[in-house]
Every structure is written in C-alpha cells, then in structure tokens.
Amino acid sequence: MWHFSHFSFFSFCCLYIFLVIIPHQKGSNIAATSVDIINQTCKTCADESYTVDYIFCLTSLQVIPVSHVTNLHGLALIAMELALRNATNTVSGIKKSLNGTAFDPFALACLENCLELYSGSVRTIVDSIGAFVSEHYVIAKVWLSTVMEAVATCEEGFAEKKGEVPPLTKENYDLFQLCNIALCIIHLLTPPLPP
Fold this sequence. Notes:
The structure is a single chain. This protein is an all-alpha fold. The chain is built from 8 helices and no strands. It has helices at about 10-20, 30-35, 35-50, 55-60, 70-100, 105-135, 135-160, 170-190. The chain is elongated. Keywords: Disulfide bond, Membrane, Signal, Transmembrane, Transmembrane helix. One of its GO terms (cellular component) is extracellular region. GO terms for molecular function: enzyme inhibitor activity.
C-alpha cells in the first residue's frame, strides 16, 4: 500500500500545480483555458453518472481558489483532498459523539462501526492520492470505490433499526459525492483501451 505523509491541503495543491500542471501549459493562457473547466467537468460527470450531483460538484470545486487555474489532473486531486478533509473531520466528529450521552446503545454501536469505516477511509484516500499522483489510475479508482462502499455501509447500519435517524447522512453524502467526482475525473483522464 502507498503511504504518503499528510500534506496540508494547500501545500499539496500548490506543489502539484508548480511541478505538474504549469510545466504542461507552457505558452498557453492558463486563465483562458480554465475559465469553464469546473463547469464543463461537473456537467460531463453529471451527464455520465446519475449519482454525481452537478450542483454539489460545482459548489465544492469552486470554493477552492486554486481550482480556477488548474486542469483535470488538478481537479481530481482537489476532489480527493476535499474527500480527505471530509473524512478526517468526520472521524473527529464521531469521536466527540461517542464521548457524549445523546445516543442509545444501538446508535452508539453504529457510530463505532462508522468510526472504523471512516478511519480506514482516511488511509485509503491518502493511498488513492498517492496512486493518482504516480499515475496508477486504476488503483486510485479501486480505492475510491472502496471508500464509497464504506460510506454506504455506515449509512445502512442505522437503517437496521426502524425509525433510527442516521446522524451522519450529510457527511456520508458529501464523502460519497467527492469520491464519485474524483472517480469521474480520473475516468476522463484514463486513456481508452485499444480495440
């Protein structure tokens, strides 16, 4: 498995832009070529996958300033970094919830399961980023799919008890979408197989 140190979000993106993206765009006007890249990418992903939410994609990627001066490689990396931030924050939130008294034993057991799933997802997303940066796109896609399955398992656990309201629905949805967006972008970057 890949083991990369945990860069801060902006340092990782800046490093990637200066080492990978800008050298590939010599002689081009970066601002002109990337004005609509977020919109076009989100539209393509929403058109190709019924599970990608166009508005979520657009609003998530637009809030990161560096996304406006990047290409598809940069957008995939940003989506994965946002997924990593989401998963890391959710782990912290679950730990706080487990220390409280707001949940019954069933919900606590579900939260403990979600904590395990999210903790594994943090490591898997880091490994996905490493695989992606190393251009092992198939491996990155498999690991991102694994994270999406973990999120679905977390959400479904609460459904086993009738009337139980899952406390992580927003976090699960957000992480699922971010991984799905990254998957779509990596798919767009993957060369088609020869006939």
